[in-house]
Amino acid sequence: MDNRIIIFDTTLRDGEQCPGASLNIFEKVEIARQLAKLRVDVIEAGFPVSSPAQFEAVQRISDAVDSVVIAGLARAKEIDIKAAYDALKDAKKYRIHTFLGTSDIHILGKFGEDKYGKTLEEKRQTVLKMSRDAVAYAKTFTDDVEFSAEDAGRTDIGFLSEVIEAAIAEGATTVNIPDTTGYNFPSEFGAKIAELRRRVSNIDKAIISVHCHDDLGLAVANSLSGIENGARQVECTINGIGERAGNASLEEVVMALKVRKDLFEYYTNLKTEEIYNSSKMTSSFTGIIVQPNKAIVGENAFAHESGIHQDGMLKNRKTYEIMTPEVVGVLKSKIVLGRHSGRHGLKSRLLELGYDMKEEELQKTYEKFLALADKKKEIFDDDLRSLMGDKKAHNVETHYELEYLHIDAGTSSIPTATVKIKINGKSFQESAIGDGAVDASFNAIERALKIKSVVESYHVRSVTSGRQAMGEAIVRLRKDEISFTGRGVSTDILEASVQAYLQALSHQQVYLKNHNGAAAAESLSILSQGV
Ligand code: KIV
Ligand code: ZN
User: What is the dihedral of CA 382, 385, 391, 396, to 10 degrees?
Assistant: First the structure.
């Protein structure tokens, strides 16, 4: 058996399902390009049938990236599979990934109606048939078809073997075994893969894939155990983002294989030096902060604090380092640019950081860069990343644009804010008081826009060092059980907070437009009458 491990990146699909992460199309394309530089084998670009925005994102990524297989997710339904094909068909290489729940819990929960069968056994037969039909239908569009048995981690091994055998018989070229709920232990999950290899007669006609969630913190361990037992594809995400506790982290799986090749003879095609850029870009675009002690990409992953460790490092790095920071692309931060830097200098540094942009985008970014350089003499890599994470720099639909912000606050005055916001060419101005400057600003925005929102969380942090550091604010709003995140960066944290709040509102608005067109359009038209 070949020891090459296929890396199937699902940051843009399962990763984007991470609570609070929401990426616009520009950001998805940019991340997909970075993933291509990282040399992943497959990019799962989205779930085309689920919304027009998802469909368009898959289509645009299919256009933009041709060195990698682009996959689109589809339930085991013709409408989903056809939508996936329509979104993918311009890609140079594409894969339809169809899935169906196979555990008893999923079957009884999703196929409870009698039309799927009266007994569990009858329902299982329906699921078996649906799996066959889905793969056969997907095969009419492409040879490259992946089938996933959702919740395989809790599926009866006998039934799982039957479903997998049927999917391969219909032509599935990859069969994915997800531990959807992150329930399995490594030894148990590995044994499941080994057992499938024993039971499924045609297993050598397909690649076995593993897709592990991190609810018990075991996603990476389970993925590695899957590999040791015969899996040759791993589904994972940058920074491990994903549903609930997330997915197996790409960087951890890949570096475990690389650092311990003495133990495992497996290898990937990844350019590991692009890991750090990929992590930073994903974090800044999604607004999901990487914990400092996160393996491989956390800020402390290569920091040595204690005197004994520092002394050891100075004598021989290997004393306390099992890999160099350089191998994952972590370079010492240095001053790169300032107000006299030209567009060319900016462009080439951004390229080194993984941001490849068209002339028009570059011009906008350059203008933002100059504005920043006026406030801040030294522009560090993290400042540039922040600038790129600021969606206003991109050609992206933003509903709410901050035209003006005035705040009056102090130790002996009532915090008061005035905001002026532009929506569809019209301006709205309001003032409000609040418990503090941020609260007053958010209240003023709510009055100007005639809305009420629930702020689920609000964080501020500095993204670079020194007194002129860039402040980053992340605001998460909640509406009807869905979270919308906004991020703002500025040398002024109040402005960053207001920008973050407006961006979260914009995301909410885009979502409403895609999922509930009439109601959202109505609220926009109410607003466009002005005050
Ligand atoms: O976790 C899961 O089961 C999934 C499938 C759609 C592959 O994400
Ligand atoms: Zn998943």
Answer: 170
If one residue of 8, 11, 180 were mutated to test the ligand 1 pocket, choosing by the most ligand atoms within 8 A of its CB, it would be: 180
Task: Measure Cα distances from 467 to 158, 271, 327, 375 in Å.
Answer: 63, 36, 32, 11
Instruction: Give the number of whichever ligand sits closest to the CA of residue 175.
Output: 1
* Same-domain status, 377 and 276: no
Query: Cα of 286 to ligand 1 centre, how many Å?
Result: 20
Question: Which atom of ligand 1 is nearest to 213's Cα?
Answer: 1
Same domain, 385 and 426: no
Burial of 248 (0-12, 13-18, 19+ CB in 10 A): buried
* Tens of pLDDT, residues 71-126: 999 999 999 999 999 999 999 999 999 999 999 999 999 999 999 999 999 999 99
- Rounded distance, CA 207 to CA 204, Å? 7
Residues 237 and 367 in one domain: no
H or E segment to which residue 75 belongs: strand 69-75
Look at residue 423 in the predicted model and tell me its pLDDT.
87
Is residue 73 domain-shared with residue 166, that is, in the same domain?
Answer: yes
Ligand 1 binding site (Cβ under 6 Å of any ligand atom): 14, 99, 148, 150, 176, 178, 180, 211, 213
Q: For residue 152, which atom of ligand 1 is closest to its CA?
A: 3
Render pLDDT for 13-65 as a digit per residue (tens, 0 to 9).
Answer: 999 988 667 788 888 999 999 999 999 999 999 999 998 889 999 999 999 99
490, 487, 480: which is closest to 511 by C-alpha? 480
Q: What is the distance in A from the centroid of ligand 1 to the CA of 103?
A: 13
Distance 309 CA to ligand 1 centre (A): 42
Number of domains in the chain: 3
- What sign does the dihedral 187-192-195-201 (CA atoms) show? negative
Statement to judge: residues 228 and 270 lie in one domain:
yes
Distances in whole angstroms, Cα of residue 91 to Cα of each of 61, 97, 169, 472: 8, 15, 26, 36
What ligand 1 atom has the least distance to the C-alpha of 14? 8
Give the three-state DSSP class for 409.
Answer: coil
Report which ligand 1 atom has the smallest distance to the Cα of 247: 1
Q: From the CA of 450, how far away is ligand 2's center (Å)?
A: 38
* Token pair belonging to 242: 């994903």
190 CA distance to ligand 2 centroid (A)?
18
Q: How far is ligand 1, taken at its centre, from the CA of residue 7, in Å?
A: 16
Of all atoms in ligand 1, which is nearest to the CA of residue 148? 7
What stretch of H or E contains 122? helix 120-139
Q: Which domain holds residue 509?
A: 401-517
Q: Is residue 109 part of a domain?
A: yes
